[in-house]
Write a structure and sequence with these properties.
The structure is a homodimer of 402-residue chains. Chain A has 402 residues and is of the alpha/beta class. Chain A has 13 helices and 13 strands. In chain A, the strands form 2 sheets. In chain A, strands 9-8-10-1-11-12-2-13 form an 8-stranded mixed beta sheet, with helices on both faces. In chain A, strands 3, 4, 5, 6 and 7 form a 5-stranded antiparallel beta sheet that branches. In chain A, helix 3 packs across helix 8, helix 4 packs across helix 8 and helix 9 packs parallel to helix 11. The model of chain A has no long low-confidence stretch (mean pLDDT 96). At the A-B interface, helix 13 of A face helix 3, helix 4 and helix 12 of B.
Amino acid sequence: MPYDYLPPLLMPNKSKIVLLVLDGLGGLPLVPDGKTELETARTPNLDRLAAEGSLGQSIPVRMGITPGSGPAHLGLFGYDPIRYDIGRGVLEAVGVGIDVDKGDIAARGNFCTLDADGRITDRRAGRISTEAAAPAIARLQSIRLEGVTLEIKQVKEYRFAVVMRGESLDPALTDTDPQVVGKAPLPVEAETEAAERTATLFNAFLDQAHELLAGEPQANGITLRGFSTEPGLPKYLDSYGLRAACVAVYPMYKGVSKLVGMDVIGFQGESPADEFAAAARAWGDYDFFFIHIKKTDSMGEDGNFDGKVGVIEAVDAALPELMRLAPDVLIVTGDHSTPAKLRYHSWHPVPYLLWAPATHLQDAQTIFGERACAQGGLGTFLAQESMKLALAHALRLIKYGA
Amino acid sequence: MPYDYLPPLLMPNKSKIVLLVLDGLGGLPLVPDGKTELETARTPNLDRLAAEGSLGQSIPVRMGITPGSGPAHLGLFGYDPIRYDIGRGVLEAVGVGIDVDKGDIAARGNFCTLDADGRITDRRAGRISTEAAAPAIARLQSIRLEGVTLEIKQVKEYRFAVVMRGESLDPALTDTDPQVVGKAPLPVEAETEAAERTATLFNAFLDQAHELLAGEPQANGITLRGFSTEPGLPKYLDSYGLRAACVAVYPMYKGVSKLVGMDVIGFQGESPADEFAAAARAWGDYDFFFIHIKKTDSMGEDGNFDGKVGVIEAVDAALPELMRLAPDVLIVTGDHSTPAKLRYHSWHPVPYLLWAPATHLQDAQTIFGERACAQGGLGTFLAQESMKLALAHALRLIKYGA
């Protein structure tokens, strides 16, 4: 359990909780004395909720730590990202929509460039384009091994994910990237006796891969890292007593949601309105809805300040759809900051809005923005505390102790 | 020790610290844009202290967690309520003024209603009134067991506390409440060999109880739970170097104070002025005074917003009595929130006022209220941090490290 003291306090009721995550929501002004993306966006609906409810700012993992998407979402889901580790291979696999079940072995793969002696000359195959790497992916997908099945998908550019499925596989395996050029890729080594067969299988995979890729100009070699299996995270139903649904467009967020026991809701389209409509259709079947908006982060990574502003405004415009469902608790926040100014995830505190009309304490803030949130009544707290706050405001927790 | 690094830093001096706890102080407005109980109360004296000192808000146990009185006070006393567990039986016993020493076994008792076959038909004896249960309590008090003594007191309605005293008793015992109607109460079972004699004694108690209660219309059975002994909490003198006094009207708070080594000051009356006068009389004998005001919480639990306002105003009116003693450090806070709107303890952050004229950093806040505290200079912090702040402002802690 993320919090051992929590399960005995859980009390089921009919309340509905919505966690609306605008990925990479937090931002920075482009100029001194300027406004952030969120502060720039015209958001009458979010501002109304901010005025009625409580604001705060959340720290995704720890102060100063810039999270990847996996740890950032684990935090928002209430699981300390330092304590609960999703293996790199699993994260890449779920990120491209490959299911990883207990006992499946996932690895992150990189294409590299080898010289005639098999030594690495470029560890990322010249940062080959996604299109140029596609034929190499197809070659890898043709590999067959005795007694196991393989699923391979491209991630982006030189990166791919591979999942091996079969009996008695074990992820206690070493990475094959020597981390420097001028050396050949390392063989996979078993760290335990139980993993020896799995090591042999992956080495057979590597041998076939290098044979099949020999003709490729850039991507003629591969390395594998982050061997891991389904992490066995506690599930939302056990941790929080919540039947939880995920509404997301991108595979990564669906994948992480599945790892904590959420059902992924299928739907057409990819606009905020489409996502809210999907939540509306499933409204009766779940207690908790995680709704993920990706494009705030994508725009931030592109350095597109105005584009990020536009995505925030589109979410705001669609928000009445969501409010019509009358959630008991609505949290609007990000998993981390992605300031367009930095073109990258960052460690900055993330704006956090709690709206729960039966129980929230309205604070003095009247707009939803970074500086308003820093002055908000909820204070500054670790993202992993958020689920407890959600449960409390949903009146789903009884008193601790007499 | 609650904080292992603290004892080496302790430096005695003649300073006086007062922790004034208004139970359930934190509140909520009854209407949007309204004021809380504390914000509504006319509190010129508290407002003056707020203007001179620093405000903040404390989280009783963890974010979102609603504490009972025991854990909430442990937190204010600097003991992490998740780490330090007072057994349910001990808490009930000290709550009604029964002393529990090391080796005494306390349990919480419930009256229940049994059918002719001894099966429970109502686990709370129809929520029998306190008055109607009094004769059944008297019957239990007549029970005698070989080699041990018993002390039994009514708590309220169907609840009572029982403490068994004697040689070699052990609290590793199972609860007897089957948790459902239609089953007979369970026998006490020993969880360890060392507890077997204690189990036998409690089963003999149960047998006698059921014989004696056979004629009662509602309360003809009992269940026992939460077997526990004095928890051996570190004492204030060892943890903080403080000779500590408790000034409280209700047994529960006296009991928890004793568990951390406070002396309980006897006095007549129960008004805030009576409590402050009691502190004045003991002023020379102690370094630390915990003064507990109960009725803010009682009014909150009754849903009596105006009544809670009135209690806060009465404390404010009496405050000059306390200030005349010229404490070096005065903290005014609650153990948790009890908003009249919710009629129950809640998880909301608690207003916190620190006044220590020699050392406090006056912040920008000028009144004592929830929203002012949320903007206060001390920020938002766990209640268990408060005792360190008190010691620091009393100049009772030397530098940590060179």
